[in-house]
Amino acid sequence: MAIQLIRDNRFGAFFWTQFLGAFNDNLLKFAVTLAVTYNDALRGSFSPGLLINLIAALFILPFVIFSATSGQLADKFDKTKVMRLAKWLEPPIVIITALGFLMNSVELLILAVFLLGTQSAFFGPAKYAYLPEQLKSSELVMGNALVESATFMAILLGTIAAGSLMSQDAGNVVVYVVCGFGFLVALLGVYQSQRMPLTPSHSPDLKVNWNLFTETWRNVRFATGLPKVWPALLGISWLWFVGATYLTQFPLLSKTLLNASPGVATVLLFAFTVGLGIGAFLCEKWSRKRIEMGLVLCGLAVMVVAGVLLHFVLHAYETSASQQTVFVFFSQFNNLAVLGLFVLISVGVGLYSVPLYATMQAFAPRESRSRVVSANNIINSFFMVVSAGFAIAILLGTQGAVMWVFTAVTAINVVVLGLWIVKQPYVMLRTQLLFKVPAKHLPRIENLEHLGEAGGNLIVFPTLLHENYLLRMAGLPMEMTVVLSGRLKPSRFVNQMRKHGFVLEFSKLSEIDTQKELIKAIALHIQEGKSIAIDKPMFELLRKQYRLDDMPGVLAKKGVVMNVLEFSEENNKENLKKSEISHTVWRLNKKEVLTASGV
């Protein structure tokens, strides 16, 4: 499926545009980072730790400043055209970087990094809003896994290219090779962006607010009002805090504690990016090709365990008296332990990231999806800028002991894991369902486009019995209350679902009082903007006896939106090999219901 998706022009051209842009960002940014770390003449009186984290902060700052404006532009205009325009900014930025190296000017190099961040800030909202517009719901997880993995591979290749050239003390080779190659990559990225299919706007009448401060605040406030999306945005922001902190400290870790060459810093980045790619593809596999928030807790748990082990390995590490080359680095067991733990941490990051991005894209309102992404970028940027200040503070407090930066991140990861469990019980439920419901029994979901629409949802399944209620909950990747006609056998798991309102049990649905209680429960869930699932027989009973078709109209008079989403099931026996399982296909259709008349 991955190769077919890349060959498909609606995704393939975007894939290469994104890949080339990420490659160039990291080629240039890492070349500048290594230059200020190892070139004393270029750095002047500034400490390497200060400049490394300052560069990281200035690359992120444009996301805080410009994301609100770029999100509006991506919603108002064709998203493809916005990305094409952003790509045209890349070649001039490469030229500014080259001038910074030629003139030995740290100020010009820092300006170039800031401009790289600015170009990415205008590319980002359109990028993430483009995917759900061009991909089917069943392709969204794979598309995100490919984009995440390609981004990490681009980071890897860009940093390897920069690291291998910067490790050579060859003067203007950096300018002629690094920047010359970067310029060609920028032009190739412009060409690929021209091949992307157009993505018409859903809000062409949107009036752009050019006030950066008020629009930034309005974007963030809008995102906080989306209960299905806001937790994912916060989760993504923490991901970037962790990622930025780790990646930024690798050159300093290599130079100080490991006493290693710049090539070793590249090796550490290699380990981290490979792990991220592995984690992203494991997420696609273990999520059963659907949005699976349960993997968020799995990813965090992996990060915590590996982070604790990393602390003990680094604490016991004996710094070499002479600088380690890459070859010497690989010959020491303690170095391999450090490398392996960074891979394991990044696998956790990959597992953690993909479901969060897929959730943001799938559940954000279509007409304002780019602004939701811009709000995400704003919050991400804030967390990343804070991560730079966080690292600087720890380095100053520990007199440059970079080990404590990694340890502090692990300690906060423990807190974040606890917050997810306590504040988002639905995510904990999804994690449990991963182990309780075998993948071979899960259906394939089609037509999930309605899940991001505003309002509460009444979801109608053809059957919803005690024997398969867990399958229903695991099959549909959204928080909902399942109505059961009967009582479940008590257990710790069942009690937990009752406590958090994931199941409603009615033992006597044939009685009028019970039916009225169910009607009230449906109305209450819809008014609170939640989702509630019933079976087809219940739905038909309530339609006939209580005019359920009138409920959307009645609630609309109160300003409440009610969606009736009905599933149909069919066996998927087309194009299957003998080794494959015939999965049931669930097709979700938005039911056209009658408006209230005479009510």
UniProtKB/TrEMBL annotation:
<feature type="transmembrane region" description="Helical">
    <location>
        <begin position="50"/>
        <end position="73"/>
    </location>
</feature>
<keyword id="KW-1133">Transmembrane helix</keyword>
<feature type="transmembrane region" description="Helical">
    <location>
        <begin position="260"/>
        <end position="283"/>
    </location>
</feature>
<keyword id="KW-0813">Transport</keyword>
<feature type="transmembrane region" description="Helical">
    <location>
        <begin position="337"/>
        <end position="358"/>
    </location>
</feature>
<keyword id="KW-1003">Cell membrane</keyword>
<dbReference type="InterPro" id="IPR020846">
    <property type="entry name" value="MFS_dom"/>
</dbReference>
<dbReference type="Pfam" id="PF07690">
    <property type="entry name" value="MFS_1"/>
</dbReference>
<keyword id="KW-0472">Membrane</keyword>
<dbReference type="InterPro" id="IPR011701">
    <property type="entry name" value="MFS"/>
</dbReference>
<feature type="transmembrane region" description="Helical">
    <location>
        <begin position="229"/>
        <end position="248"/>
    </location>
</feature>
<protein>
    <submittedName>
        <fullName>MFS transporter</fullName>
    </submittedName>
</protein>
<feature type="transmembrane region" description="Helical">
    <location>
        <begin position="93"/>
        <end position="117"/>
    </location>
</feature>
<feature type="transmembrane region" description="Helical">
    <location>
        <begin position="173"/>
        <end position="191"/>
    </location>
</feature>
<dbReference type="InterPro" id="IPR036259">
    <property type="entry name" value="MFS_trans_sf"/>
</dbReference>
<feature type="transmembrane region" description="Helical">
    <location>
        <begin position="378"/>
        <end position="396"/>
    </location>
</feature>
<keyword id="KW-0812">Transmembrane</keyword>
<feature type="transmembrane region" description="Helical">
    <location>
        <begin position="402"/>
        <end position="422"/>
    </location>
</feature>
<feature type="domain" description="Major facilitator superfamily (MFS) profile">
    <location>
        <begin position="10"/>
        <end position="425"/>
    </location>
</feature>
<feature type="transmembrane region" description="Helical">
    <location>
        <begin position="145"/>
        <end position="167"/>
    </location>
</feature>
<feature type="transmembrane region" description="Helical">
    <location>
        <begin position="295"/>
        <end position="317"/>
    </location>
</feature>
